[in-house]
Design brief:
31% helix, seven-stranded mixed β-sheet, 20 helices, disordered N terminus
Amino acid sequence: MAGPARAWALLAGLAVIAALALTACGDNDDGCELEPGADPTSVGRLGCPADYAAMATLRSDSVFSRTETILVIVDREDDDRVYFIDTEKYTLHYEFAASHLDRPGFTAVGDLTAFNLLNYRRPGRRFILGKVVRYLDQALLTFELAAGDTADAELIVHGYEVVRAQLGDGDALRYRPVSADQEDLLPALTARIPTIGTDEVFRGQVYQALNPGVGFGVVRFRRTSTLGGQPLAPTDLVVLDRVPNDVSMVAGIITAEFQTPLAHVGVLAKTRGTPNMALQGAWDDLRLRGFEDQLVRLEVGPQDFTVVAATAAEAQVYWDSLRPSAPQVPAHDSTTRLMFDVTRVTVNEVNRIGAKAANLGELYPVRTLTGAVIPLPDRPLAIPFAFYADHLASSGAGPLIDALLADVGAGTVEPTDLEARLFAIRWTLYRAPVAPALLDLLEPLLAARWPVGTKLRFRSSTNVEDLAEFTGAGLYTSASADVGAAREHLGNAIKTVWASVWNQQAFVERDFYRVDQTQVRMGVLVHPAQQDELANGVVLTINEFSELRPAYYINTQLGAISVTNPTADAVPEQILYYTWYEEPEYEVITRSSLMSWAVDWPSPTALLTRPELDQLADYLYVIQARLRARYPGSAVDVEWKLMPGRQLLIKQARPFKRREVARAAR
């Protein structure tokens, strides 16, 4: 029964309980079913902690950390015989059933498709397929079904009662719904069996693994409110009291509050390959405080974490492995001085207008499988790189940039001085006037597209942003101005975006990845601001928990409370929308903590209705197909909004490729 997952369970603290129970198992006085050293494929009863330890595993694909899982089958055709399965040997119910339960006189197990259809979606099923989950931090024991299981209330109650009767601690067992359809059955269940909502389970967690992997760094404790005045280095492993809206390039992230998984911080950690976790009480945790200002090796696992002292030599090997071996020279064409209609561009224009604008342009010709148009920003424009290059040359910022790059290359710039020098560059760019020729081109196009007074967003679109190998999410600055506003206001909005090329976090990250800073170019994407949204969200078209179960990972929040830059303590709705089934199904990880603020909402619990989720999934399917053809091997990161009238709007889409994090044990 040895194995890495079971060894991890011992590290997690189960070893003491299991060892004590095994000592007593010899005479079975404590109710244990298994003799010491027994190695069964299944057992009909879990009578003691040792029985549970023998069958359970800490699954790497669990949506909650620090959980032990046992798959369970109830054979309704065999007098409700119960099989608690060795879940390290068998990761699927089907694997066990096909090997052990395909017997004469009973309904055939069949192939995987037939098995799933009958036993998850039909009332006349032979098997009830569930799992028993022990949540270690909450002292909680649950009975759960699969997200796509269509069992009615009677079948759920029956399965729960049969399983509970075969548990030594069955009185502690509670039923947890994992899908919206199962949540809808709670009123019919709560009076009959003990239940617990998924939000209560989420709130009871202590540890949240957001980007598993290994990192080396010097442990730094920082108040989030002071990050601007205390620069962090790429070799720092930062412990934060609260969740920041952004963080510079670091070796690892630990927050003392739970994070919105698809906020900018979370997405940046994934694309940078930065280990990222949340730990309740991290600020005072002695396992971390004991290493303050020391070099450590942090391993963020899907179920737990470890931190140990490290040597400078092994850390340097790790840091060097993260950086490209050769300088990266971004390509650009800074000669075109015409406005671009984004509805007519493709990624072929990346070198003229930047990736954000070009990626958005790819989506305008796309139709869903039913022929529907994807809802996108209205007729956006793109200001090409040439105008940024002209402004850079005429502003006088060039000598400041050259001097800074020379000093950085010589290693003579202190982190505390870097921001002051970058601010001087930004201020020089902002202070210089925008060329009248640019405004002469832009103003009539704005007036022809949108009514006077329309609020516009001016957004970054660079040649080192929204690319598969370099996302740049959240590194640059957006601005606003109205159609018909004074030229000064339009110019200021454009200059704000241009100057953000020299934001400190952007500069440090490009430097770490050896990007030639002199070849960075900034375009500007212009479109109407999307105001008065009912909800907003971010989607990754990849299952963050298991690559074996394709899904869209959807984070949604009420109103304008941003998912990408969340308000403290605001928990988003998190859903896994599975795409590998003929009939769509989805798993609810959390509901929004702000639902009590929702007025005249279709559901008291869900931000998106089932038809809205299905519609979003239809858009995601064709968006992913389009961008994957342009960026092979990438998933897609999509930002969207639910607008008045409950109309979906796709705000932007970028390729998403997780930078591989070191995972090998030392």
